[in-house]
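Contributing: when you submit paired examples, paste them exactly as shown. First protein:
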Amino acid sequence: MLALDKRGGLHNPCLAVLAAMGSLALVACSTATPVAKRAPVAKSVEVAGPLVSETGFTLTDNVRIDADTRAQYDNAVRQLEQKQYEQGIASLQKVIQSVPTATAPYIDLGIAYGRTGDFDKAEASFKRALELNPRHPIAYNELGMVYRKKGRFAEARASYEKAIALVPDFHFARLNLAILCDLYLADTACALANYEVYQRAMPDDKQAAMWVADLRTRVSH
């Protein structure tokens, strides 16, 4: 499970492997990525959502795999947790060769590519995951972050909105959309609405409360 720190970000990559009844449930999670700061109140984080979130939704791939593939995926998990991204990418590619219909390895692969700065390959990996499961909110959230980093803000917005349409309580996607609308799209109505939804879900996030207060002040002037 991903831990939420006091900056509103997520730390410690979460890529869990759960075995059940001869099948393997591949569960992909991801890490936060900083976004640009802006005075007077900086939106300093972009948040990736855990598959088992505080809102309670869970997504898994249940696929039958052999012991070697399971070990390979376990190894990839450890490598990504240790920030050994090149090695993790190589391990995940081997897993994908064995289980090409599972979405989780593609999401993990996209996250790893994103952490190395290869956003084109990250985008391709998330799109492949969505080809396999067009209703995967985590993939849409991750793809939105890639689009934002590539300066494709309208596509980032659409991707976050698809994640939210699938899981309206996906508050990490709400926060990412709010930050995007606030900092990059100058859409204060979108930003305020999504900040407020996030704040209701995460009332102890003091920084988010500051962002909401700052935006309300700007709107009122």
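Second protein:
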Amino acid sequence: MSESVLSSILTEGSLNAGTFFLLLGMSLVLGAVIALVYALRSDSTKSFVVTLALLPAMVCTVILMVSGSLGAGLAVAGTFSLVRFRSAPGSAREIGAVFLSMAAGLACGMGCPWLAAVFTVVVGAAYLLYMTTSFGEKRGGDLRKTLQITVPEDLEYAGIFDDLFSQYTTQARMTRVKTTNLGSLNRLTYDITLRRAGMEKELIDALRCRNGNLEISLAERAAEGGEL
């Protein structure tokens, strides 16, 4: 790889509209690639994937604004720490919005209001495009559930529901066993994928006949990357 490829395309005072659009566009493209690669092999939420796709563009603008300024760089580093560790925990979408606002404010503070406006419009348009399309969505994501079944303490639960799972689900995996009610009951937690939508009541009714009509809960599975 030649030295020209490894060297920066930026020199002192060389940031112009063309260079900014090139860097911003490349950041959006690379962010989309990273987000899609991540989504392929993980159970992530749409908001996290979209935020992952937009973060490179936000960080790119921040770095362009503070390049060569030690004081601004230290201030931005402190802001990043505050956004991530000092704010109330939020969803990926909320944290992404905070970074977007920070980058736009930083651009204005560095005396580049038009750059801040263009950046906001471009990233905002990309956000709306991602959120209105199927980008980052998992196929059949509404079929993935977390199932909790309460059984008596003396019940041998290993494999007792396998026939029901094979009938109503395409995948079922026990993830947790917890004692409850002073040890007189066990609560089993499974990650399951239903065969089709609308089977929840059938599955719960079948399980009630097997666990002595004790408590059963079925909820949306908490995906990886739901919060930052």
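If you have annotations for the second protein, write them as plain sentences, like these:
The chain has eight helices and four strands.
The chain has two domains: 15-132, 141-220.
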